[in-house]
Amino acid sequence: MVNADMPVRLELEPMSGDEFVVRRAELVEDYAQDLASSRGFDGEHARKSSQELIDGLLPQGAATPGMLLFTGTAGGERVGWVWLALPRAPERPDTAWVFNVYIDAGHRGRGYGRAMMLAAESELVRRGVPRLGLNVFGDNTPAIRLYESLGFTVTSQQMAKPLPTG
């Protein structure tokens, strides 16, 4: 169990297999929506792509080696969860990645996103990981602001421009 001391007190606990089943379904839908809005995928294609990616990255669910899935609780109540990937060679042997951070709808806007990220950082520091990376969709302004306020900087960027058809 990790404790992050901050204005909002949040604890991370390893995610159970039962909770993973529920959270996986939410993740598939959320990521499918992101794919549809950012890449123009139709609904079914986005959902299928989302499922394939998540199943490929988490073949053993919450017990997948090299992946850390934690439930965030505050005052004994679940407020969200975070998915971290431990460093893997040869891509970036010094960098862990935030694959997803999710705050449940009823708990948003109260500092839990920041608390979740700080608790995740504390867990990685405890494990000796020197660097943390993440990807964020360009239209997710609240997340970008949060990450910048936590000290993240842009290290690469993709851009797109719609072209006229016909």
Automatic annotation (TrEMBL):
The N-acetyltransferase domain extends over 20-166
InterPro entries for this protein: Acyl_CoA_acyltransferase, Bact_Acetyltransf, GNAT_dom
Q: Which UniProt keywords apply?
A: Acyltransferase, Transferase
* Pfam families attached to this UniProt entry: Acetyltransf_1
Keyword Transferase applies: yes
| Name of the protein this chain belongs to | N-acetyltransferase domain-containing protein
User: What Gene Ontology molecular-function terms does this entry list?
Assistant: acyltransferase activity, transferring groups other than amino-acyl groups
